[in-house]
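Data card: per-record layout.
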Amino acid sequence: MSDLISIDLAIESMLHATSLLRFRHILEKHALTQRISEEINASLAEQGLFMREGTIVDATIVAAALSTKNQAKQRHP
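The structure for this 77-residue chain is written out next.
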């Protein structure tokens, strides 16, 4: 499988949660989630891989101060 699905958040914005939920409901209404999983698993199996379940993580990365838990109790320069 050479085609990968990805979202470059530096260029594209992430879909709103309600848009994702509506899409999920459409997939479920038309019984497409099982078919998509089967296709993904078949593609992975061709490569000797498998997937049992998936997880989507919604995270925000923020700058944070460095730890002061060093011997001098001071921030690293």
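Known properties of this structure: The chain has one domain: 1-77. The two ends are 46 Å apart (CA to CA).

See the next section for split statistics.
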